[in-house]
Amino acid sequence: MCLKKNVFSVIVMIVLTMSLSITSLAKEDDKNLKTYGFNIEYVDKEELPKGAEEYDSLQEALDTFKGIVDSLEYKEPEDNEIMPYSTSRDVLVKSYSNGVAKVNLRCAYTTTGNANTGKVSSKKAYTTYTGLTISTSWKQSYASATLASSGKDILCKAGGVLNYNVIVEGIGTVISDSVTLSG
After folding, report:
1. pLDDT digits (tens, 9 = 90+) for 31-45
2. Of residues 75, 77, 74, 52, the one with CA closest to residue 64
3. How many whole angstroms separate alpha carbon 156 and alpha carbon 161?
4. CA 58 from centre of chain
5. Interatomic CA distance for residues 183 and 121, integer angstroms
6. Which listed site, 2, 4, 49, 119, has its alpha carbon 20 to 30 Å from 99?
């Protein structure tokens, strides 16, 4: 019985030492990285979504994500996409896009009264993530819809984290950046 406990203890110590070594090596290399202010998290590569791109270096993955983030731009919807006082509507308020993938701030609302004469009776802000999203993911942190004193205008806000899910030297890596939308 004592031998089994000792063997188990030795196995646990070896596993812990190996995982700490991998983490400390990754952390040591991180000191010379240009991170552009992004957050970096190391995870089991099995936790990443299918299609995660593989890189030989973390710097290469960071540079690629920097290019993605730099190509993103805020876009206002066209005037014909907004019908602010209809009875029930779901509208695009603003999007954050790189031309391939988009984080969309949307607002669903209903009004009381007849067509355009009523006031807003319910409202909800939310985000969607659309387009070619391979190796990226979106996690909404919050969304809110506030009614103006007129009872007819709604201010929507949302925020979250845009993740770039990659494998660097066999280690699952998530590089992330915060995104805020309002309109």
Report:
1. 677 777 888 888 888
2. 52
3. 17
4. 19
5. 19
6. 49
Position 139 scores a pLDDT of: 92
Residue type, 125: A
Q: Are 39 and 62 in contact (CB under 8 A)?
A: no
User: Quick check: 62 and 176 in contact, CB under 8 A?
Assistant: no
Residue whose structure tokens are 């040591």: 28
The two counts, helices (H) then strands (E), for the chain are 2, 9
What stretch of H or E contains 39? strand 39-43
Q: What is the pLDDT of residues 104-147, one digit of tens each?
A: 999 988 887 665 567 778 889 999 998 877 788 899 999 999 88
Q: Is 92 helix (H, G, I), strand (E, B) or coil?
A: strand
| Residues in the chain, total | 183
Give me 29's structure tokens.
Answer: 């290399």
Q: Cα dihedral sign for 49, 52, 56, 61? A: negative
Q: What is the mean pLDDT of residues 65-91?
A: 67
Block residue for tokens 């596993």:
15
Stated pTM of the model? 0.61
**Residue 77: pLDDT above 70?**
no
Check if the beta carbon of residue 26 is closer than 8 Å to that of residue 167. Answer: no
- With tokens 């188990």, the residue in question is 8
